[in-house]
Write a structure and sequence with these properties.
The complex is a heterodimer of chains A (about 290) and B (about 200). Chain A is mainly alpha-helical and about 290 residues long. Chain A has 3 domains: about 1-80; about 80-170, Orthogonal Bundle (Helix Hairpins), CATH 1.10.287; about 170-285, Orthogonal Bundle (Serum Albumin, Chain A, Domain 1). Helices cover about 70% and strands about 5% of the residues of chain A. Chain A contains 14 helices and 3 strands. Chain A has helices at about 20-30, 45-50, 55-80, 80-115, 125-135, 140-170, 170-175, 180-190, 190-195, 200-205, 210-220, 230-235, 240-260, 270-285, and strands at about 1-5, 5-10, 15. A 3-stranded antiparallel β-sheet of chain A has the order 1-2-3, covered by helices on one side. In chain A, a hairpin with a 2-residue loop joins strand 1 and strand 2 (about 5-10). In chain A, helix 4 (about 80-115) crosses helix 8, helix 7 (about 170-175) crosses helix 8 and helix 7 packs antiparallel against helix 13. The longest helix of chain A has about 35 residues, at about 80-115. Chain A is extended and about 90 Å long. Chain A starts with a strand and ends with a helix. The relative contact order of chain A is 0.07. With about 200 residues, chain B is an alpha/beta fold. Chain B has one domain (about 30-200): Rossmann fold, CATH 3.40.50. Chain B is built from 6 helices and 11 strands. A 7-stranded mixed β-sheet of chain B has the order 7-6-5-8-9-11-10, sandwiched between helices. In chain B, strands 1-2-4-3 form a 4-stranded antiparallel β-sheet. In chain B, helix 4 runs parallel beside helix 6 (about 160-175). The longest helix of chain B is centred in the last third of the chain and has 14 residues, at about 160-175. Classes of the chains: A mainly alpha (about 290), B alpha/beta (about 200). The interface between A and B is medium-sized, with 30 and 27 residues.
């Protein structure tokens, strides 16, 4: 028997399929593989089936069903809880880039107005500098500095939301590495499902694309860490054991991501043992 | 193919992606579309109104819309949801575009909707592009043709583009395709090659 969207063909006879658009969508997404050798669909069989009258009718019916099916697939894809988190974390990183670019530009502008101003030997954080610029500048420059400050506030609100959402969507990964970094890992992998399918070695260097491809191409040393460098256990580790800590952490993250995807709830027993293992690697090799 | 001077165009409703118009025809930019580039640097396969096309890697439906201007029907397969939203919009405006959200690696997922076609056009950024083409050739009618846009950088960045090209040609001829034309798409697209072939049997 051969099954097509409009019906089943058995011994040269057609059994038409009846139902509304939803029923057809369900049918085309669940037709089992035929055991017989594959024969491509012939639209004239659909006419014999009585599903449509002519070629034009055939195509327009098929199109209605395929558009509806594609729309549903898109909706299902975006329905996952990670879809919005992914956009949130990408927006967050984009805002950071914008803030840095604008701050640089505004500082250059400010230095033209104040030729004696220099940022050297001043231990003031960037946002304080921006505030000074806003208070001391008239006109557009003051406005620009003000906008940068606003962006900074928005960024902090968003960062909190990302963290909270990550804790909910990926509780195990977030517990090990923090919500923000967990969300970045997920976004770089392209979603929770792809992340849960990555081997630990790939998670370890996720976000170190340039270094990784330089390594593959020209045999420079392989990167030891990507995004997970942002975790304190990695960047606080002495250089000679940093790779080791990164590898252990990545191993545990790979398990955590699978737990998050398939179970979707925190697993305290795993988290405790994983945390211990990471701490031992960090402390044990430090001396 | 329709040329106005040395500009390739397609006849159809404009405004799909703010493309330039020449009278009532839509300009088909070779720098934007690899298929248009193929018609500029080589021969390709002439599209005609009776043709049925299976288009793998339909993306936002930009090139799809031009192909649809020429042929009877385009079965447009795309896997990613974001471009699919645009493709659906193109399909709403064109009676002969059938969008299918599926992985071109698994043609058995769309055997129930795609009929036998005259042309398989493939433009996917995957490492195993030749294998995908071979798997989808089950839809190709006897004597039908395959246009494969080879993104050599997606196959293996460590290999030289020309090596990837030669390997792909070998894989295709071993699978029973006879290669009609194989060209690089420079200067329009870097490290991209087009391979035009027919299924040798039938």
């Amino acid at each position: 028997m051969q099954s097509y969207w409009f019906g089943d063909i058995r011994d040269g006879r057609c059994l038409p399929f009846a139902g509304d658009t939803n029923a057809f969508i369900h049918r085309i997404s669940s037709i089992p593989d035929s055991t017989e050798p594959f024969t491509p669909l012939d639209w004239r069989q659909a006419v014999d089936c009585g599903v449509c009258t002519d070629r034009c009718d055939y195509l327009s019916r098929l199109q209605v069903i395929c558009i509806a099916a594609a729309e549903r697939s898109v909706r299902e894809y975006y329905g996952g809880k990670d879809a919005e988190l992914l956009q949130m974390v990408r927006t967050l990183d984009e805002i950071d880039t914008v803030i840095n670019l604008l701050s640089e530009r505004a500082a250059d502008w400010y230095m033209v107005r104040h030729p004696s101003f220099s940022r050297k030997y001043r231990r003031v954080p960037a946002h304080i500098l921006i505030r000074t610029m806003r208070e001391k500048s008239r006109g557009a420059l003051g406005k620009v500095a003000g906008e940068i400050e606003q962006l900074g506030e928005m960024r902090n609100t968003l960062a909190k939301e990302v963290s909270a959402q990550a804790n909910a969507v990926m509780p195990n990964t977030s517990a090990l590495i923090g919500g923000l970094v967990a969300a970045r890992l997920m976004a770089t992998a392209g979603g929770l499902r792809p992340l849960s399918r990555l081997p630990a070695s790939a998670i370890q260097v996720l976000g170190a694309k340039t270094a990784l491809f330089a390594h593959l191409r020209t045999h420079t040393p392989a990167p030891k860490h990507g995004i997970i460098f942002q975790h304190r256990r990695v960047h606080n580790a002495p250089r000679d054991i940093r790779g080791r800590v990164a590898r252990v952490l990545a191993g545990k993250l790979a398990i955590a991501a699978r737990l998050d995807y398939f179970r979707g709830a925190a697993v305290p027993a795993f988290l405790q043992s994983a945390q211990e293992k990471i701490d031992i690697t960090f402390e044990g090799n430090r001396s | 193919m329709i040329w106005v001077g040395d500009v390739l165009v397609s006849p159809g409703e404009g405004g799909v992606y703010n493309e330039r118009m020449l009278g009532k025809a839509r300009v088909w930019e070779p720098y934007r579309s690899k298929l248009s580039a193929l018609y500029h640097v080589g021969k390709g396969i002439d599209l005609d109104p009776s043709m049925r096309v299976l288009y793998l890697g339909a993306a936002n439906g930009t090139t799809v819309s031009h192909v649809a201007d020429y042929v009877e029907v385009v079965y447009a397969v795309e896997f990613a949801p974001r471009p699919m939203q645009d493709l659906i919009e193109v399909a709403r405006r064109r009676k002969n575009v059938i969008p299918i959200m599926a992985d071109a690696n698994q043609p058995d997922r769309y055997t129930s909707v795609v009929e036998a076609v005259d042309l398989v056009y493939q433009d996917v950024a995957q490492p195993d592009q030749a294998a995908i083409a071979i798997r989808n050739s089950i839809f190709l009618r006897h004597g039908g043709s395959l246009i494969l846009m080879l993104k050599t950088r997606s196959v293996d960045v460590r290999k030289k583009p020309s090596d990837v090209f030669d390997e792909t040609l070998a894989v295709l001829s071993n699978a029973g395709f006879s290669v009609l034309e194989s060209v690089w798409l420079a200067p329009y697209h870097q490290d991209h090659a087009a391979i035009v072939c027919t299924k040798a049997d039938g």
